[in-house]
TrEMBL record:
Protein name (database record): HTH araC/xylS-type domain-containing protein
Gene Ontology molecular function: any one: DNA-binding transcription factor activity
Pfam family, any one: HTH_18
Highest taxon, organism lineage: Bacteria
InterPro entries in alphabetical order: AraC_XylS_family_regulators, DUF6597, Homeodomain-like_sf, HTH_AraC, HTH_AraC-typ_CS
Domain spans labelled HTH araC/xylS-type: 164-264
Organism whose genome encodes this protein: Pseudoalteromonas luteoviolacea
Keywords: DNA-binding, Transcription, Transcription regulation
Coiled coil: none
Keyword Transcription regulation tagged: yes
Length: 265
């Protein structure tokens, strides 16, 4: 079981938030690598009279989460969302690969946008039994093993080629600072703009333009953690035309200006 030690992205005010919880992430076994991007487990133990509200960036991946006596399927998220932690508790989560569930979901992926479904019946596994098993385990290795055993039948439904292609396209967006438009992505990937738009709609439910802006904002938040008082550095580093364009991206995706975000760091 290999731990994922890559930098965490998509968590707002990461430095300030980190002391409130313990997060561990693990890569799937090779047998489930076309289905699962990672397993994530988070625990917190907060004073009785306090709580922590964790804000997160939109997430195009589908998730399956387990809390005591609760199992939920989370579709792609198109807007900033909050989760309130209080007392002593934890979540066990599965982050599915982009496009991996396209042949499993009863409806097109956009039907599940910003949607939560309790105990979904379409994942071809006994989620009630899995929830019980997870509640009786006391270590991460056993929990990940239980998840893999339960989810393995889903691998037979995955169109591996489509998943690999989508993963490569999204990784290209994440890792290339010079991709600002869908035209840039088409040029670098060798995939036509129309094909990109069709594939992202069919398998992710979000447009390539939206995801380019989202991952650009990931970089912006990381830079703000390091340079919280230098908006001009951010504008220049991310090659925005001007500060107004940066502010527009923040407002559209985070619902706030860079200044408001900095005030809360």
């Amino acid at each position: 079981m290999e731990q994922n030690n890559q930098l965490i992205s998509g968590v707002l005010h990461q430095t300030k938030s980190a002391p409130n919880y313990t997060l561990r992430r693990y890569f799937p076994s090779p047998q489930l690598s076309s289905l699962v991007e990672q397993y994530w487990l988070v625990n917190w133990d907060l004073p009785e009279d306090s709580q922590h509200v964790q804000r997160n960036l939109p997430d195009p991946n589908c998730h399956l989460t387990f809390l005591p006596n609760k199992c939920e399927f989370l579709g792609p998220v198109s807007k900033v969302y909050d989760y309130t932690m209080h007392g002593q508790n934890g979540i066990i989560g599965v982050k599915f690969k982009l496009g991996a569930l396209a042949c499993v979901l009863p409806n097109p992926i956009e039907h599940y946008m910003d949607t939560v479904i309790s105990m979904p019946s379409f994942l071809h596994c006994d989620l009630a039994a899995l929830s019980k098993t997870l509640s009786q385990t006391d270590n991460d290795k056993a929990r990940v093993h239980a998840l893999e055993q339960a989810l393995e039948p889903l691998c037979g439904y995955v169109k591996v080629h489509h998943v690999q292609q989508l993963s490569a396209l999204v990784e290209r967006i994440k890792s290339n600072d010079d991709i600002y438009t869908v035209e840039d992505l088409a040029l670098q990937s060798g995939v036509s703009k129309r094909t990109l738009q069709r594939q992202f709609k069919q398998y992710i439910g979000l447009s390539p333009k939206y995801l380019i802006r989202k991952y650009r904002l990931h970089t912006a938040l990381t830079l703000l953690e390091r340079h919280p008082n230098d908006i001009h550095h951010l504008v220049n580093k991310l090659d925005y035309a001007d500060q107004a364009h940066l502010i527009k991206d923040f407002k559209n995706i985070l619902g706030m200006t860079p200044g408001a975000y900095i005030d809360d760091i």
